Amino acid sequence: MCYNWACPVSISPSLRPAAADFGPALRVGIVGCGKIADAHAEVLTFLPGATLVAVCDREVLLAEQLAKRFAVPRYYTDAAEMLAAEKLDVVHITTPPAAHLPLTKQCVEAGANVFLEKPLTLTAPESVELIRAVEAAGKRLAMNYWPNFEPQMMEFKQRLAAGEFGEPVHIEASIGYDLGGAYGQALMSDPNHWVHRMPGKLFQNIMDHMFNRIVPFFPDGDPEVQAFGFKYRTEIRNDSTDALLDQLRVVLRSGRLSAYATLASQAQPVGNTLKLYGTRATVEVDFNLRTVVTTGSQRYPSSLGRLFPPFQQAMQYLRQGRKNVRAFRQHRFHFFAGMTELLTQYYAAIRSGGPLPISYAEMLSTARIMDEVNAQVYPQNNTPNATDGGAA
């Protein structure tokens, strides 16, 4: 069963067509030259069939430095000017989410397809408006849910579709966020950081990476949502950073299928996993270790049944490790391998008119769940006036 996933099959690097086989390269631009734009530019440097021809940021120094480091021919401080001058096929929007809706409208009206950083927008109604604008312009949209296209996740999807795990009974998605890391320190040291102005604050910037892994298992509509957030750390700054909750737990249910999502900013090591409990086997995908490891029913007598499992698990990790070594030798073990796969599929969909790698229904379901979580854990930020003000 494919659920809402189209069960995409990863394209082996040895089977990928050469750049010349694509025809004229897609002309690509980037709007927003912050840290995440580096990842987009790096992937585009090596992606066949696409050429990064321009970048744009309202801060000229950010646009200039990105252009120089990645040998991009031109940089701009005005998106409209870039769109008019460059006649782009695709624009990657890597700005904070408050700008996603107006920038997407601007890009599709100029004839460009759009690749968006997460989250889609600040609210689910805005997300609906954004997708309607893309469809009305006859363009294609994809979101950078790149972990869902990592090699280990592609393996998981294929084995799931083959029925290896049986029918899903329960799903767990867990992701960590280190407030002491580079991104966390930037957020916690600046009370005016754009994350603090979102309805869901830190959660809204991270939690779609949990929900977009769960949503495909609920093809019959949005699940029920029960969420609570709390603060593990001690308040020390006496400013807006103290208002930020750092722990999120969410239970989802639809029919006889349930799911659990957890975002933790204090637990070490920082986790990033998806675990599925199936009627035939339980499987865990570890995005940090890049492994897919199953636990099946034991068929041995009780004493032997307790003796063998550690060795069986060790053998699975050894096989996964060997796969990772092969990928490393073939230059496929880089950090954003999933983004490379996602963009390959997205650009192919643009050229062929075929199915997109991520459906709009999945994007909107994720957005609606996020709205519900925000309303439950930050009710003071999610009144109509507060939401409208945040979107402006």
From TrEMBL:
Sequence intervals crossing the membrane: none
UniProt keyword terms in alphabetical order: Oxidoreductase
Annotated ranges, domain Gfo/Idh/MocA-like oxidoreductase N-terminal: 26-145
Membrane among keywords: no
The keyword Cell membrane is assigned to this record: no
Pfam families linked: GFO_IDH_MocA
Gene Ontology molecular function: any one: nucleotide binding
PANTHER family named in the record: BCDNA.GH03377
Protein name (Swiss-Prot/TrEMBL): Predicted dehydrogenase
Origin species: Bryocella elongata
Upper lineage: Bacteria, Pseudomonadati, Acidobacteriota, Terriglobia, Terriglobales
